[in-house]
Amino acid sequence: MRIELDTEANALYLYIRDEIKDGEAVRTLEVEEGVYLDLDADNHPLGLEFIHADAFQDFLKRHGGRVEIPDVVEDLDSLKLSTA
After folding, report:
1. Which of 2, 6, 46, 83 is the most exposed place for a label (fewest CB within 10 A)?
2. Could you report the per-residue pLDDT of 40-61, keeping only the tens digit for each?
3. Closest by alpha carbon to 49, among 64, 61, 32, 63?
4. 53, 11 Cβ separation under 8 angstroms
C-alpha cells in the first residue's frame, strides 16, 4: 500500500495496489461525498481517493476507526462500512 498527498489540491490517494497502469481503473464508486474507490475490470480495488485530504480522519471516525475493503467490490453494500 502507498499513500500520496497532493498538497496543492489537498487531495489524498491511498493506493491499495502499488502499481496502477494507465487505463486500469475502469470503474469508480462514490463511497460518500468526496470519497471515491477505483476498481479494475474484475472489480478489484485499486485505490481510495479523498478529494479533501482533511476529510480522511473524519471518514475513519464515521466508520468506527477502521475500514476494510474486500478483494472484490461489486457495489457499495459489499464494502460493509460501519457507522460509529
Report:
1. 83
2. 999 999 999 999 999 999 999 9
3. 32
4. yes
